[in-house]
Each structure stands twice: as C-alpha cells, then as structure tokens.
Amino acid sequence: MEELKVLAVEGGRLPSVSFKARGEKTVLVGVLMRRFRVVDLSWRLIEIDGLDATEKAIEIASDLPSPDLIMLGSVTCAGFNILNPFKLNEKLGVPVIVVVKEKPNNEAVYSALIKHFPDWKERWRVFEELAEKAPIRHVKVEEGNPVYLEAISISGEEAEKTIKAFLKWGRLPEPLRVAEIIAKGASRSLFKTLGLHG
Amino acid sequence: MEELKVLAVEGGRLPSVSFKARGEKTVLVGVLMRRFRVVDLSWRLIEIDGLDATEKAIEIASDLPSPDLIMLGSVTCAGFNILNPFKLNEKLGVPVIVVVKEKPNNEAVYSALIKHFPDWKERWRVFEELAEKAPIRHVKVEEGNPVYLEAISISGEEAEKTIKAFLKWGRLPEPLRVAEIIAKGASRSLFKTLGLHG
Contact B181/A39, CB-based, under 8 Å? Predict the structure, then answer.
C-alpha cells in the first residue's frame, strides 16, 4: 500500500464571468502520488460543460508514470463535463475509485442535465452505469462526516481499505486533497492571467 | 516549526524550441506548505531570461495566506531571470532561505551574464549582495550529498535547523521538493498546450 502509485484527477474552478458562456475553459489536474508523497504532475485545459474531460485525463495519464490506481473526486468537473470512470478503467487498465464528501444525488443531477443539456443522455448514461455497477459505499472516517465511494475493478472492501490508508489531513485521501488544492489554485491563477475572475 | 507556513517558489523548465528566443515564457510556481502538508498554490508566467520573476513571486504571495518564511531553490529561474531574495524579504517581511543542491558558482554565473546580457550589472548585483550578506552554508543531510543554503533575515544556524525539520523525502526540504515537481510538470503541460516541446 505504501508504494501504490495513485493518480488523482481533479477539475479546477469555474471563472465567475463565464457562468453562462460555454466554451470557456478551466484546468484539469492530475497528481501522481505514492501515498503521502507527491511524485509528478500534469494538467490540461478542459471546456466548461464540455465533454472532453475523460480524453484529457487519459492524455494527462500518458504524461506520467503508470499508476496502480485512479482516484476521482467526482464524476463531473468543470460544470457538467464528465470524467467517465469506466472509460478510464478500460483505457488505463487500473481500478478507479470515486470518493466524494457529499452523498451522490442522482435525481438532482438528472434534473440539471435534462434541463440544460440537449446531449443529456450521453452524460446521464455514466451516472446510470455507475449506479448499476458500483454501488455507493458509505465510509466512516475519523474526522466527523463520512465520505462516499464508488469502486470500479476493485471490491468495495478493498477500495475502503485503500482510501483509509491514504488519509492524513482531513476526510479525503491525500492524493485527492492535494489534487483539489492544486486544481483550485491553478485555475484561480489561470483566470488572473486571462483577466477573468475565479 | 510544525505549523510554520512556508512559501516555496520555483521556476519551470525552458521550452527546448525557444532556447535562443527571448520573450518566450514558462511558469513560476508558489506552493504554500505547513511542513509536509500542501496548503495552497498559485502560479504566474515569467519570461525566459527576463527580469520579471521577483515581481511575479510577489504577486503569487499576494494570492496566498501570508507565509512565515520563503524558500527558493535558486536565485535564477527561467534561464537567467532573477528571484531577488532581498526584495522578497523587504516586500513580504519574512526571512528567505535559498537552498541549492550544487555549490553556487559565482564565477560561472558572472561569465555567462557578461557574455549574454547587456543588462548584466543589474542581475549580477543580486549575486554580489548575496555573497556579501548571506555567506554560503554547507549543510550535511542524511541522504549522501550536502545542500548549500544562503539565509536572509534569519541566522545560518536557525535556517539550517528549519531546513532539516522540513526534510522528508530526499535532500530538499519538502516545500521545495514539491514546488520543483509541480513547476516541472506544469511547464511541460504548458508547452504541450502551446505546441512547444519542454
């Protein structure tokens, strides 16, 4: 477990000025860690509400040493751009664990998708497949509130054990905590560089 | 020491295609850490062989919680762009420690500067001031080779103690090790995004 190479993938913030402007971009960050040790990093730009996050995550992985496991902080990023965990599992050949702080609410996702996206079926399919193949697992962690995980190509028990071995500061496993901080900071700097406001 | 907030600043790689092309840019990354814990991040673009790194480092600091200490992996970045530790100390009001793996060689720097830079005096002044006010301190660390440090607004002894408390994986204090990895990875991805080669 100590030497497991984990690739954590996280999307950055949205620029506030382009809330309604499709086509704007933010960062998608991949951080490779060996438990608590940062080993490597790569990033790409992804479209707000686009459908390019999965493909960009695969590009990010190709920049880095091969991981033993992928961790995602969410299936959505950059608004409703989709990180498809099944495709990542298929293309990269390693298990994927999705770890979220709030219990996934598929009804809310469904409502938002049908309301705002003509291509909602393509996006919704991923949530359906996840609900079917990767039942949500409630994981108690030391710091108060639980986290929820969905595991692909790895048993729920094994996924839970792995997550717990990667906890250090807070509720999220360290690779996701670090990836989240970097994605947030990197996108904020991107918007400053571009003259937008994060 | 545990709770000391350290801002580590590192420049990214150079794009290989623009070795001679002044005006090209790379990233300057600032990582804020509490000992081994990544807390926040910001970045800016800086000019290869430009003179904007100090000013951009101050902008980076202004994005982040106030640090108690600055760590630099070098006084130069992005070629011969200068991170002026005296100006950082003056503007940010906290001690600065420069930690390098190779013993600083001012003769080589001087030769390169007078050969390539019409404004070499402005750049060289920083090295002169450093040699005068912050004598190089040889620090033995556990992993084989030593590191060298130059300390501003903090005694050599205190700087050495601090560096050692921040060692975890390898010879560099953790904030600099992490900042170096992020700067390298972030610049590599930048060049891919721009169609250059890092």
Answer: yes
